[in-house]
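Lab notes, practical 5.
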Amino acid sequence: MFFGLDPYALLQDYGYWTILIWTFLEGETVVIIAGVLAQQGYMDPKLIAICAFCGSCTSDQIMFLLGKYKGPAVLARFPRLARNAERAEQLIHKYETPLILGFRFVYGVRNVTPIMLGINRVNHLKFLTLNIIGAGVWALTFTWGGFFFGKLFEQLMYEASHMALYVLAAAAVMAGFIWYIRQRRRSRELMRIIEDDKAKAENAVQNHEIE
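Output from the prediction step:
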């Protein structure tokens, strides 16, 4: 959760606005949950992807501009970002273009990367173009990831329900078999007791006749 907020409840209350604002501030959690809800028919996956794209792309564009014009001050103000700044800068020098396309998928540096790209004076048009592409791929990946995860989960639950029926049926057969065995043993014991009593009675009659 983000700041103690429940994304599922927010999606129920505010719908697509939740996706737009959440992806502007945080990340993909709400997109995945929305994708699951889309699979259940509560939301439109196309609108989910559009909102996720707009929120993420806008946020990182602003972070890039902040890095370009106020980068050192931003890092000084937010030490958690500054901790990963060196690693992000190393990645920028080695893989600038691929990093711009895929930094949203790189945990640990994804929040500070657009700021560091701005600090390193990456061409604005280049960042804008690749940021749009990267945001689109990111939004579609997690929207449909949530959608197909929901579908897979539903299929697993469907199969599990059928499996539960088979288990119950097998348990019922086993219980019936155990009951049958016990009843058969009890019948044998009862017959043995009756035969013993009968034998004792016959012996008693024979002994009485002899006397």
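Observations recorded by the TA: The first helix runs from residue 7 to 14. Residues 38 and 44 are 6 Å apart (CA to CA).
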